[in-house]
Design brief:
Two copies of one chain form a homodimer. Chain A is α+β, with helices and mostly antiparallel strands. Chain A folds into two domains: 293 residues, Aminopeptidase, CATH 3.40.630.10; 114 residues, 2-Layer Sandwich (Alpha-Beta Plaits), CATH 3.30.70. Helices cover 36% and strands 22% of the residues of chain A. Chain A contains twelve helices and 16 strands. In chain A, strands 1, 2, 3, 4, 5, 6, 14, 15 and 16 form a nine-stranded mixed β-sheet that branches. In chain A, strands 7, 9, 10, 12 and 13 form a five-stranded antiparallel β-sheet that branches. Chain A has a two-stranded antiparallel sheet with strand order 8-11. In chain A, a hairpin with a 5-residue loop joins strand 1 and strand 2. The longest helix of chain A is centred in the N-terminal third of the chain and has 23 residues. At the A-B interface, strand 8, helix 8, strand 9, strand 10 and strand 11 of A face strand 8, helix 8, strand 9, strand 10 and strand 11 of B. Chains A, B: InterPro entries: Amidase_Cbmase (IPR010158), Bact_exopeptidase_dim_dom (IPR036264), Peptidase_M20 (IPR002933). Chains A, B: Keywords: Hydrolase, Metal-binding, Zinc. Chains A, B: It comes from Paenibacillus validus.
Chain lengths: 428, 428
């Protein structure tokens, strides 16, 4: 037994062989929930496709020999109970929701790898000493409601039900309504807040091009960038497109497109790693022969240094107000997401590095340009974030792709890390 | 009898007194069809509100003693048959459709004034020698489908059913589907094409600020500007807002907002009377944390000189392609409306001027910056376009307003013109 447990490179290859097909099938199966004609996947929080996916995952967890259960907000857990019941749980997993017409791997991979890892460990080593759990987090993207990390935030106490009271989606459906329609937010379900998590490990696709360009298998994330998201509302005056001379117009779109141009140019001047994006852009009344009265658009800005981020945001908000004033427009800005940069746990990262080295798995310590659920868990327990390559770095798109072999290497690293923590009781 | 018929100024005041309240009530009543919470009116072609309005108008026409009938596309006619049946009809009216959340007066006033004028004439002078008709045209704005002047175009042979074959609204409903759902486009209705119209007179709110600024009652339109409308489709690459460095992006919104800025600046440099508008702007996938893959927007350009219009459009289209190339974006442009400038009938305009002078009604000969149904009729018969003031020039907006007194003066002028043509048989 003892000989078997610290994998040799040969054992790692065996693991990878034995799980490559399984992980590929699991990913394709999950990709069928919310499949779009355009080729992508859409699983917005509490939608029908989202609900179908969570219920199917619960069944798959039971099939894998795990105890499946939902919490109040709709997070799904698959548990392998530890023999030493006084110990905290080791948790792995990621989010089940997607952006509109997004990819098959973002979020989903971390859940699939977790289920397969726990199944593998139970089959080969029986029950762990420390409880091991895989979680399918209900929401991370903020694609349906202006709210991100609803799943991990509810578990870690960083999100509260009061925050959703006034939120509605683009069809005017309230957050609460949607949650209850999906069967959650009711008293019979267990409270989402957890105090018994000893460590959190998230496996995720890089959503960038670094690992592929450098031809590496694993990225060990040291820090996650800080990011801010704003809603900007520009108000002018609706008027006739033919009879209103240019100089008498109060064109909300004229102002909003100028602000967008300023933001993108300023981000280019600032240079990497700063990124700024206008992703959402709504015009009212949105008719060809009417001068737009209102434009509501979003701004997403990210940088690993809190001060640089702060300074840049102050700068573009000042310019937006100036542009509005010059054009006799009214502008309102609303900061609805403000995540500080987060450093991941050094101890866990060192273990992952050790695993990679001992099995000659090529790896790199790096920063993440995207936010991830692991940053929420880092506030309550040591947390790690492990990347596998993304082909061409394309993500949030139907073209998102990672080869089954790359997925399997990441899963193998997760299996060994969970083994060390759950069965060998290595100190976290 | 003869003494009464050529109105003295005193008679004009009597008319105005007698119809001011009636026109005000009629306008408020019409404004109730498609009334929006935001305060405006929305009657998109073949919608439920549109259908309710047409059916209610048909009843109102019968009540006014007119013969009401619909044609194949849903134009509604109220006829006062002439005693001399060999003569062509004199037609007045305007369009019943509105833009999204538009005003109460645009189009509607021309219909209301026509019904009230014909009712007044029948009551005071009995049946005319030449047939008089008021028409409630089904569509002019192009707000639901990329198709304008569907009503007047079908009557004058400038629009054909083949042109709607592929058109759908923003919800994917086909033009044909919508028309049939509203009860039109069926063989049992009479063909829309007319060959028996002797003259067309349209009464309309100015939708501009000239008459109010100059404190004048009536605008006599000599020419209508030419206009072009395009749909511009910019395609880039959807990608992750956090992990994609600025220099590697293919941001469709970055390109489209730059094109919008270029267009508006070029229009300002060109100077009045040229106007250019981006009224509609759709982003895909339209999510805060995804770099936009596609933007589809409209461009509306107008000028009374065909050559200036042509040159300006060529210039901005060239620049759009240049911007797309520089940013590695793909751009497609589609011209879906191309209306040449139109001169209105000099003879009818002279009659209107004579009526105004003889009754000391302040007036101005002017150009129209907006397209109107009268320009379609001018292709098949002498046509006139008469403006009344628009408060602050605001139009296509809930704030659109013209005082009942101004509406009544315009209606009185229409009554006298119809009297001269229908009863006095003045040459057109």
């Amino acid at each position: 037994m003892e000989g078997k447990v610290t994998f040799s490179l040969h054992d790692k290859c065996e693991i990878i062989e034995s799980i490559t097909e399984e992980i590929e099938e699991f990913m394709l199966w999950m990709g069928s929930f919310g499949k779009q004609e355009e080729g992508g996947v859409t699983r917005l929080l509490y939608s029908e496709a989202w609900r179908d996916a969570q219920l199917a995952l619960a069944a798959a967890m039971e099939q894998a020999g795990l105890e499946a259960s939902f919490d109040w907000v709709g997070n799904l857990f698959g548990k392998l109970p530890g023999t030493e019941t006084n110990k905290t749980s080791i948790m792995t997993g990621s989010h089940v929701d997607t952006v509109k017409n997004g990819g098959m791997y973002d979020g989903t991979f971390g859940i699939a790898a977790g289920v397969i890892a726990l199944k593998y460990l139970k089959q080969h080593f029986g029950m762990p000493k420390r409880s091991l759990e895989v979680v399918s987090l209900c929401e991370e993207e903020g694609s349906r409601f202006p709210m991100t990390y609803w799943g991990s935030g509810s578990i870690t106490g960083r999100r509260h039900v009061e925050e959703i009271a006034l939120l509605t989606d683009e069809n005017g459906i309230s957050f609460r309504e949607a949650m209850e329609a999906a069967g959650f937010g009711s008293g019979t379900l267990r409270d989402s807040r957890r105090q018994d998590i000893g460590a959190f490990i998230e496996l995720h696709v890089e959503q960038g091009i670094v690992l592929e360009r450098k031809n590496l298998n694993i990225g060990i994330v040291e820090a996650i960038v800080g990011q801010r998201r704003y809603t900007i509302e520009v108000t002018g005056e609706a008027n006739h497109a033919g009879t209103t001379p240019m100089m008498w117009r109060k064109d909300a779109l004229g102002g909003a497109s100028g602000m967008t141009q300023y933001l993108l140019n300023a981000a280019r001047e600032q240079g990497a790693p700063l990124v700024a994006t206008v992703g959402r852009f709504e015009v009212k009344p949105n008719v060809a022969n009417v001068i737009p009265e209102k434009v509501i658009f979003t701004v997403d800005v990210r940088h690993p240094d809190a001060t640089v981020l702060e300074t840049f945001c102050h700068r573009f908000l000042t310019e937006f107000r100036k542009i509005a004033e010059e054009q006799e427009l009214h502008v309102q800005t609303h900061l609805w997401m403000n995540a500080s940069p987060v450093n991941m746990d050094k101890g866990l990262s060192a273990k992952i590095e050790r695993i990679c080295k001992s099995h000659d798995i090529s790896h790199l310590s790096m920063a993440s340009g995207a936010g991830h659920d692991a940053q929420m868990f880092q506030h309550i327990c040591p947390s790690a974030l492990i990347f596998v390559p993304s082909h061409l770095g394309i993500s949030h798109s139907p073209q998102e792709y990672t080869s089954p072999a790359d997925l399997a290497v990441g899963t193998a690293v997760l299996i060994e890390l969970l083994y060390l923590l759950g069965y060998k009781e290595e100190e976290i």
